[in-house]
Amino acid sequence: MTAAGTPGHGPLTGVRVVELAGIGPGPFAAMLLADLGADVVRVDRPGGAGIGVDPAYDITNRNKRSVIIDLKAEDGAAGVLDLAERADILIEGYRPGVAERLGVGPEACRDRNPRLVYGRMTGWGQEGPLADRAGHDIAYIALTGTLGMIGEPDEPPAVPANLLGDYAGGSLYLVVGVLAALNHARATGAGQVVDAAIVDGTAHLSTMIHGMMAAGGWQDRRRANLLDGGCPYYGTYETADGRHMAVGPLEQRFYDEFVELLGIPELGPARQDPARWEELREGVAARFRTRTRDEWTAVFEGSDACVAPVLSLREAPGHPHLAARGTFVDHGGITQPAPAPRFSATPTSVRGGPAQPGADTADVARDWDIPRLTKDGG
Q1: CA angle, corner 336, sides to 335 and 342, nearest 5?
Q2: Secondary structure of residue 253 in the 3-state scheme
Q3: Residues β-bridged to residue 120
């Protein structure tokens, strides 16, 4: 068995997952399952996914194995159904109805394996007026109200990369869903379909905000609230060198330490008076502009003022705390986030680099006892 399929790494050791190759949240969800120890077999299509990323650097395919099956070929579906018969979970990210047309939809798979958990990852969901429409992260989060929360009030909403929709509202909810359904399948012998829609998951992430809004504690506009930059002691400030510090001393005792270390104790009482918030914001901004980011980092070092430097992606792995925890690892010459979360009895690791399309066909055919794979894809 290849390194990526080696058993004994993580709490999902022994769980078999089939991933029908796609882009975005599906591969990330499958990576998370693989990081947790599952034997994830990615079914790549001939010619690749078509997004122009060198497979050697696509670390969302780490800890997986890959076979190539042409689902448009006459016997393509048969190979996937053979895998589904031996799997616990299958993940696909096609538009509604596509998997069915290819012969690998939920019914076809569960006819072969009634215990199978069939995870469906889409933006709009399997049903609804937009279900058949194309889309990407930014459109999905736009409709949920979450994109409209982020940014300055007099500027367009800020784009949070594709982290909020694809990965938080999509991948993570798919993983929670398929693992919950797997628990049910193991208890009852019955699999089921998990409809993970990015619009649903992203909306769910805003549950607390909706409660605050109903209670009158949140205004439905940008930068007017406690946690969206409207509060002067919860936000970011530019330093003398053009970098930034993040500030978040919400509790009184942390706030007191913050204004003391920043050197503006006279502005401390402004916290209690929203009419003085702009005065407080200007005072905080003026102070931060007097020193560099690293100098302010040193000032707040060891304190409970809830202040941290805003680091770039390249800087983050070198931060002493993250380095001490091993939050980032180097594998195959690529610095990347380590698997998360952590487990006391079943530790996880990066066991293998990005799966190369079709490279593991022979191993999977042997390990999963599917000889036809070597004939069709190897």
Answers
A1: 135
A2: helix
A3: 92, 195
> 245-263 pLDDT, tens per residue?
999 999 999 999 999 999 9
Q: Please, are residues 182 and 88 in contact by the beta-carbon 8 Å criterion?
A: yes
Q: Which two tokens stand for residue 157?
A: 């909403």
Question: Can you say whether the dihedral through the CA atoms of 314, 315, 320, 321 is positive or negative?
Answer: negative
Closest among 271, 278, 264 to 223, alpha carbons compared:
278
CA-CA distance, 174 to 189, in Å (whole number)? Answer: 20
Task: Using alpha carbons only, give the angle 206, 210, 213 rounded to the nearest 5 degrees.
Answer: 135
Cβ contacts of residue 365 below 8 Å, gap of 6+?
Answer: 67, 371, 372, 373, 374, 378
Q: Tell me the per-residue pLDDT of 170-197, one tens digit each, with 9 for 90 and over.
A: 999 999 999 999 999 999 999 999 999 9
d(CA 99, CA 71): 10
Neighbours of 301 (CB within 10 A): 9
* Band of residue 376 on the pLDDT scale cut at 50, 70, 90: low
Cβ 363 vs Cβ 5: under 8 Å = yes
Tokens 């190979």 appear where? 79
Task: Out of 58, 82, 137, 166, pick the active-site residue.
Answer: 166
CA distances (Å), 202 to each of 30, 147, 168, 206, 247, in order? 19, 10, 7, 7, 25
Phi and psi at 78, nearest 5°, equal: -60, -40
Residues 332-372 have pLDDT tens digits of 999 999 999 999 999 999 999 999 999 999 999 999 999 98
Determine the longest span between alpha carbons in the chain, in angstroms. 77
Structure tokens at 316: 């983050």
Give the span between the Cα atoms of 218 and 212, in whole angstroms.
Answer: 5
Instruction: Tell me the two tokens of residue 154.
Output: 């007099």
- In angstroms, the CA 98 to CA 108 distance is 13
The residue that leads in pLDDT, 7 or 289, is: 289
Percent of the chain past pLDDT 70, that is, above it, reads 96
For position 52, what pLDDT does the model report? 64
Sequence letter at residue 320: P
Q: Other CB atoms closer than 10 Å to residue 65's CB: what's the count?
A: 26
CA 181 to chain centre: 20
What's the average model confidence in pLDDT over 3-11? Answer: 62
Residue 166 among the catalytic residues = yes
